[in-house]
From TrEMBL:
This is Beta-1,4-N-acetylgalactosaminyltransferase. The keyword Repeat does not apply. It comes from Dictyocaulus viviparus (Bovine lungworm). Belongs to the glycosyltransferase 7 family. The lineage of its organism: Eukaryota, Metazoa, Ecdysozoa, Nematoda, Chromadorea. Gene3D superfamilies: Spore Coat Polysaccharide Biosynthesis Protein SpsA, Chain A.
Amino acid sequence: MLFTNSFHCCRRIFIIVSSIGILLLLHYNTSTTFTSQKAFKNSNMTNLTTPSTKALELLVTKNITEMGKLSCSTISTKQLQNCSIREYRGRIDITMEPRSIEELERKYQYLQPGGHFTPTDCKALSKIAVVIPFRDREEHLKILLNHMHNFLTKQKLDYAIIVVEQIDGQIMNRAKLLNVGFVESKKLYDWQCFLFHDVDVLPEDDRNLHTCPFENPRHMAVALNKFDYKLAYEGMFGTSSALTTEQFLKTNGFSNRYWGWGGEDDDMYTSCRYKLLTLTKRDWSIDGLNSLSYKLVNITFKRLYTHILVDLLEEKERLTIEKEFCKEENEVKSYDK
């Protein structure tokens, strides 16, 4: 994987930590290599004590306002053979020069609205939603759209790129944006697989199949150029992770509690972070999809991607978190004054 930004090391490390938090009970194999695509063979998700998958599915689909659907191919897949990839190049060229949206729309004019692609000559290998948390990274987004559409189309996937953005004036909450992306994407299409992918990371090898093993989640970015193509640390699961719908429901999604990282944190919330991390394992079954609150502002089906804009209700939720988990820290600070 190619990391396209070298100026956000501190913030990216905590992004990854927040992703790991909700998967602490999954014992996966971090010996995965860049090209071998070994799955996480040690996970035992059936033993997890979770809210029922059925209950979460009802939660996801309850009170849906029909805003539109991603279009489906009019060709009957019953008459088609399963897709197969006959040629792999291995390492592929990376274009780091951002192109204009207009140029990209001309290049990928075969895409259906919402950045949706379905192969017409065979049955797709997988139905995958690529969920991108986004804020103020226009140049990175253009590079990613150009690279990923070319990459995923050649892998014969039925896919769409879903860009999830929160309104201005709120501290970034990557994990909550990913939860929103999952919930809203499920309303649009019958996805089998969800790829949660950062905007500044690009796959460099076409043998890195972007599909979801049904047994266990898959970490797609075990080798980043930023870390000399090694795993940054044992247990890393961030930047690009693939889970089936069932797997994501069983883990109850990501924690909604991680507001801000790095320089965006205020002093008080930084002092609370480590306490929140220790509570994640205990509270993962009640903090995630089943506690997700947000206000959908709009969904726009662009040529290159589906854009979801949301209000994450930051002020209300942060006050609740600070009251519940940071009481001791606040009392100490008040006493010191």
